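[worker-b] picked up task from shared queue
[worker-b] task type: protein-ligand structure
[worker-b] ligand name resolved to zinc ion; SMILES cross-checked against name lookup, match
[worker-b] sequence length check passed
[worker-b] input payload:
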Amino acid sequence: MERSADMMEKVVSLCKRRGFVFPGSEIYGGFVGSFDYGPYGVELANNIKAAWWQAMVNRESNVVGLDSAIVTHPKVWEASGHVGGFSDPLVECKECNTRSRADHLLEEVGVFADEKMTVEEINTVFDSVRDKIVCPKCGQKNFGSVTKFNLLAKTNLGNFKDDWNADPTYLRGETCQGIYINFKNVLDSTRVKVPFGIAQIGKAFRNEIAPRQYIFRKREFEQMEMQMFVAPEAEMTVYEEWKKKRMQYYLDLGFKQENLRWHEHENLVFYAKAAFDIEYNFPFGFKEMEGVHARGDYDLTQHQKFSGVSMEYLDPYTNEKYIPHVVETSVGVDRTFLAVMTEFYDEDELGGEKRVVLRFPKKLAPIKVAVFPLLKNRPELVEKAKEVFALVSEHMRAEFDDNGNVGKRYRRQDEIGTPYCVTIDFDTLGEEKPEFKDTVTVRDRDTGEQVRVAITELIEYLK
Ligand SMILES: [Zn+2]
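[worker-b] inference finished, payload out:
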């Protein structure tokens, strides 16, 4: 489908209507930048995470998993540079006190501001077009000067002083720091040798001034990150390998090539060797989905400096000692979720009727199969359908549905992307046609075609 605001509205509305995504704290009027995954949303998000883990850990002989703490020693964030330099440019409207991201306001008048600009640089740019920039809340053009607002969220977890804010701990701003600080632990406790990777899925927190674009930019979000530790001279080779693998990953999932592209960072942070993003064609245009970065030895060197613990690796083959370099792949669960909803959303006509259908690949579909009794008020059909449901639910996520007529149930399952619907009818009971006894109708989501399958062969057929 063509990307547009209209499409975004359709996806957002479907997510709410069918229980994929709910606005956070809705009964209290909502809470900006927060969303809750509903019954089908949590299944889809879990499947996205499982697919990533399968590709990054299970299928890679030299990558292991980790689940590190969300709240760490505060020094971790000093070492990582987040306490000093992890900020967004903030500007306040003097008329209504609304705080906005200066770079977003500049973008709206066609001026590009880089996140790595200093406060002075961005103020110069802002002042040069100040007369064109209007406050998104009140429409006035009366702003203060641009300041830097730190994105790390503070917490008093484990801090019982009255003035905890002066000496805070932080909710992690990214999951990879938990990986760096466990580099030695993993090395000393497992069979791995450089080159090896550590993968982690988990929540991260950023105090975004203006969360926007639905679940694309949230304050509380989930990351899937993998850090590959490599010998310095191998960094760029490994980097190129992972670039290829990560693009192929999306193609294998069923994404169209035309909706994916590489974007090279124009301004690299000083320590990085290379940084490319995989951008996806979201309803609001191409935006970053995943980053693949060659980070040099910056991360481990910083933690060695701040902790006093050596991060050196002694290569058992060459006897060489070095601090490993890092190749990182980093993607958000929430961004992948929105990309998947966008990529597989479709509208078509089936049997002369218009429908909305999510053409999810089977491994991502929240529900793999729905089981229906043809009629709700015939106990013998319902009983048989419950038997079939019990059978298939042992093997895959299934749903039992006896609400409304079968046509309505098909539409409902199409809208949540269920690949197969199984109906138990009078033929299943073998009342009139004994040759059909203990067979069911299996209907395909994409074609609407129906076939008769014996219950004894059903699991094999669905798999
Ligand atoms: Zn204002």
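[worker-b] attaching auto-annotations
[worker-b] The chain has a mean pLDDT of 94.
[worker-b] releasing lock
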